[in-house]
Write a structure and sequence with these properties.
heterodimer; A: mainly alpha; globular; B: mainly alpha; ABC transporter involved in vitamin B12 uptake, BtuC
Chain lengths: 304, 288
Amino acid sequence: MIRLAIALLGLVALALVPLFVSEYELGLMIGMATYVALASAWALFSGQTNYISLATVAFYGTGAYTVAVLNESLPYPAVLLCAALIGAGMALLVGLSTLRLSGIYFVIFTFGLAELVRQLITWYEVSITGTLGRYIFLDLTARDIYWQMLALAAVAIGLTAWINRTRLGLALRAIGDDEVVAAHSGIHLARTKLIAFTLSATLITLVGAVASPRWVYVEPLIVFNPTVSFLTVIMALLGGANRLWGPLVGAVPLFLLFEWLSVNFPDTYPIFLGLLFIAVVFVLPNGLLAGLDDLRARFGRRGK
Amino acid sequence: MTTLVLGLVLGGTYALLALGLTLQYGIARIMNLAYGEVTLLAAFGLVFLFQTAGLPPLVAIILIAPAGYLTGWLLYTFMMRPLVQRAGGKPGKLEVDSILATFGLLFVLQGIMLVLFGANFTSISYLDQGINVLGVSVALNRLIAFGICLVAGVGLIVLLHWSRWGLILRAVALTPGSAPLVGIDVNKVSRQGFALGTALAAVGGASIAMYQTFSANDGVIFTMKALIIVIMGGVGNVAGALAAGFALGLVETFVATTFDPGLTLAATFAIFLAVLIWRPQGLFGRRS
């Protein structure tokens, strides 16, 4: 109960931030909220089950592109609903064809998915509609986007917390530990994975949709940037993908680092990020939070 | 007929790429997502050797293949081996770790290539006069690339099936747990398998550079195609990978000529989906 109160207080405090900061700082806050939402949504499925999804940007980009296509013909809430439905549909398609099989097929499929969607949209736009690139004109201020993104991040974390307490969460953890054991204890593997993956992908699609008005001009190369998938995975891993607050703990410092790197080393920053990623896999395989627990346990023992 | 000949030529390169990947995954149990980046690195290497050092590509390939082996050897020793040790024989753990580590490696290699060579499309003109093959005019460089793939691919099959070293490699691929019982050093053999796979990736990349334009961003596509061929052929199945490689080359050329070159990746994915739904063990694999 106290934890919930602290979390809610934090959320209220964060929601009040735009009243006190400059335009640039608000931009940073939006970016941070975006990646907290992405990493938490990603961990909702991949963190618990160890099914690594490399397709974050496929859903994120789809969300953004849906807004770009529909923003002039439908009211904003309806556009968001469409984006969520399209994301869920895509996730069901991917999940139904790969989640019945061993994890490696899922990884491979998601690995190429963003490139596939990008090429399909590019092909469609060039050869059928004849235009590449669209404009988004929505009457939304940076504050509106920040509040929406903050809400999404809160939903992603809240949903994870809630699922962790339900049978679904228990089933997901069992699958992550040992799939054979999970199957023998009566868990419907494919259905469990499919539900979690679809929830996670729908949230990611919505993040893309909410973030899109910041661009104004949208084209496939911009919204399907593989760096997004990459950052999401490394953020969740750094904090600890199977912890509730892990993705948040990883996303905030890494987003700031990413901003700093991309400003100061615009050409070489992917190399630094890649090296950092490898370092995280080697040094902190279970994330910062688990690392802290280990340290605490070690010092605790020494104290006695 | 044009589609058939061009498709087979393209398929040869794909088959070679898939062979390297199936060695890495089948023997060393490393799922290498940076595979396409290694391929591209070799392709850029060939262009560099050709343009600045003036080396003919055929000579350059002779240099690139051992360089690929060495790169693979170093990568396995310093990057993959610690992960194998940490996994302690649990294949699931190694799979997740190797996927994540090579995903990081992908961005490192891609970043290095973007800095060194830029994001533009690169190509060289080398022996591009047409040669008549069964009534179809095919550029000589494509034929040479096809020849290289054929030599490397057939050579590998012969090596794997009729040499003692091939027998050892196959033993580790089949049951890494029992191989030590007959005196096989699994670590050494895994390293060799991974290095050999990297060498094949390098040769494949170098032959792509001889006839195709490519850019530093194409790595994911090469990895994807190689992965799908491996799955179509059945993991660890060399003959299956060869056949699936040719099949993919044919389908892709057919789609590019009849529909639109922008849809080739979609065609690749469609095949992948079909294989996943009908025969997840691979077209030539046995049900486990």
